Amino acid sequence: MYWRNLTVGSIQGLNTTGPYDLAICALGFESRCVSHAASFKANSKTQQAIGFTHGHNDLYRAHKKVFADLQIDVKEPDDSGFRTLVQELLNRLTVVDSPLTVCVDISSFSRKRLGMLLEAFTDHSVPIQVDFAYSLAAFNTPKEFDGLTLEIGPITPRFSGWTAHPDPNLDCIVGLGFETGRAVGAIDVIEATKVHVFHPKSALIEYEQEVLKANTSLLDVVGYNEWINYNVELPFQLFEKLESMVAMKKTESSVVVFPFGPKVFALVSLLVGLIHPEITIWRISHGMNTPEVDRKPSGITAYLRVSFLRTGNEISVKANAQV
Question: Alpha carbon of 316 to those of 1, 241, 285: distances in Å?
Fold first, then answer.
């Protein structure tokens, strides 16, 4: 059963007035994976860094030491063990005040693991309020990579979608990033009848030309008319744009979302997928062949608060601005 009770709101930063019950972050080779480690340690009762079974290069080991020095527990499950670990973490928490409070740094999680995280929060028996943090990477000239695609399809079975249209048109929503050629390839695979492009913008203006350069072929196919700009630093505004588009488009066609680009677009896409289970959220992955690029923190962080509720049957989406 899909649990569709959630609220989504805007916050300006992590809560520092009282400790979170749990803090979760990824351990990886990106330097930004440790950018919230100290604040998570100081502002939460329990912390968990979750690594991978592969990619243990020098940077990975250095970041693992950062967590160890902060006395933050590290686990390194494969994807099949990832959700089990998150479920166990939630089950161990003592419920004193409801809802449970959790903070998550999504910066270095894979899209698949983001999906499994949301599933675990959605299915837990106790209401959970989650503050998500996303550290924008400092500008680094992107490297082209045309490696073999190993996986293409729904991020998890939960996001495989369904539709009431027996012979539908197919609307494709694509987030832009540096995945050269992958967006066009994705559109070709699903034979989309209409394409809508979400174009990321931020204070890091150096990325602008690089994103356009990486997506020249997509621009040739789509043109500018179906491009929607969004601010990476304002994820709640992005949520409002994407959710309203999906709510409109799903009444007349099937909808598939490809969450390329910043991880904050993936997070928002998955939340919209929970609210509208008819749509499909797809991923294209190179698996362990993905190049190891060290993405350093820029000092800019975007935040989003999501409450996973347990009462009533209506979807509630509202802005809970934290001043």
Answer: 18, 16, 33
Assigned domain for 11 exists = yes
Q: Are residues 180 and 298 in the same domain?
A: no
- Residue 216, class by beta-carbon neighbours within 10 Å (0-12 exposed, 13-18 middle, 19+ buried)? exposed
Please report whether residue 319 resides in a domain: no
Q: Please give the sequence-ordered ranges of beta strands (E in DSSP) within the chain, or none if there are none.
A: 6-9, 22-26, 47-50, 73-75, 100-105, 128-137, 151-154, 169-175, 194-201, 227-231, 253-258, 280-285, 297-308
> Does residue 316 lie in a domain region?
no
Q: Are residues 124 and 155 in the same domain?
A: no
User: Residue 142: is the preceding peptide bond cis (ω within 30°)?
Assistant: no
Reported as a single tens digit per residue, the pLDDT across 22-62 is: 999 999 999 999 999 999 999 999 999 999 998 899 999 99
Residue type, 32: R
Same structural domain, 94 and 118:
yes
Residue 259 half-sphere exposure toward CB, CA atoms < 13 A: 29
Under a CB-based contact definition with an 8 Å cutoff, are residues 137 and 202 in contact? no
Contacts with 271 (C-beta within 8 Å, 6 or more apart), sequence order:
6, 8, 118, 239, 306
Compute CA distances 321 → 133, 285, 315, whole Å: 15, 35, 19
Residue with tokens 């490297």, as numbered in its chain:
143
Which phi-psi region, left, alpha or beta, contains residue 45 (left: φ > 0; alpha: ψ -120 to 50)? alpha
Domain of residue 275, CATH code = 3.40.50.11700
Domain span holding position 205: 151-289
Split into its structural domains, the chain has a count of 2
C-beta separation of 103 from 96 below 8 A:
no
CATH number of the domain that residue 102 is part of: 3.40.50
Residue 206 domain flag: yes
Q: pLDDT of 156-201, one tens digit each?
A: 999 999 876 666 788 999 998 886 667 777 777 787 888 899 999 9
